[in-house]
Amino acid sequence: xxxxKLQYIGTGAAEGFPGMFCHCPAxxxxxxxxxxxxxxxxCAMINDRILIDLSPDLYxxxxxxxxxxxxxxxxxxxxxxxxxxxxxSVALRARxxxxxxxxxxxxxxxxxxxxxxxxxxxxxxxLRDQPHADRKRLRYVPVESGTWFQAxxxxxxxxxxxxxxxxxxxxxxxxSGGVSLLYANDTGxxxxxxxxxxxxxxxxxxxxxxxxxxxxxxxxxHMGINENLELKEQLIQMNCVNExxxxxxxxxxxxxxxxxxxxQMIMGPKGFTVAYxxxxxxxx
Length: 284
Known about the structure:
Blueprint: E1 4-10, H1 25-33, E2 43-46, E3 50-52, H2 58-65, E4 74-76, H3 87-92, E5 111-115, H4 117-129, E6 138-142, E7 149-151, E8 154-160, E9 170-176, E10 179-184, H5 192-200, E11 207-211, H6 225-237, E12 246-250, H7 260-267, E13 272-274, E14 280-283
Parallel strand pairs: 3-4, 4-5, 5-6, 10-11, 11-12, 12-13
Antiparallel strand pairs: 1-2, 1-14, 2-3, 7-8, 8-9, 9-10
């Protein structure tokens, strides 16, 4: 069996944690506690070569974590919200003066961007905003609901998220060499249709990563702990997981008033690990 390497680059929601301009009690506790309680905006990396989303914090994240972003050839998008799709940084990848890759043949000097038609629009807007960007270096690849595609030698299956009501947003089943991951970021409670579709894939996930931006609050376009527990039980009932499956919580916010450490105390006994910036998982 092979392995999927998943690195959580950022594990915070749109405002980060603590929020940049926020003086609420949760943000103040996070500032005082530091460490894993400090969370930059969300994105992740698969096998050191594939980005899932592109955070507006990615420049600082890459310096702090020592990421070799020049080796990334594939960007798999969940949706077009600007805390997940930083168009300016995407356009810099396509500018001669901003990105120099010595020795790379020009015909190979591009990054493929996978997502719904809304991502295509976001890429086009990024190119319009940066007229010096070379559009040949950004190649949009359309993704269709319910259709497998491959990026960077890894298989992805897009499933409809419950997030931005005027946009087709995705979570992903990720498979490589018999190892599988459910990456459910930026979504509220999944529809019955999406849950059934997950069950129909015939996968037993080695790891499940869930949104938990709502924390102790009721879910909306994000999950809270009640939705996390519900999805875990649904996966168990459909035999999509087993006793070896690991569960992780991601995309945390200050909105419910609890920090990383608080959430780990609540959800650790229920079989969940709260992800933190820089966490590396070797799945499989």
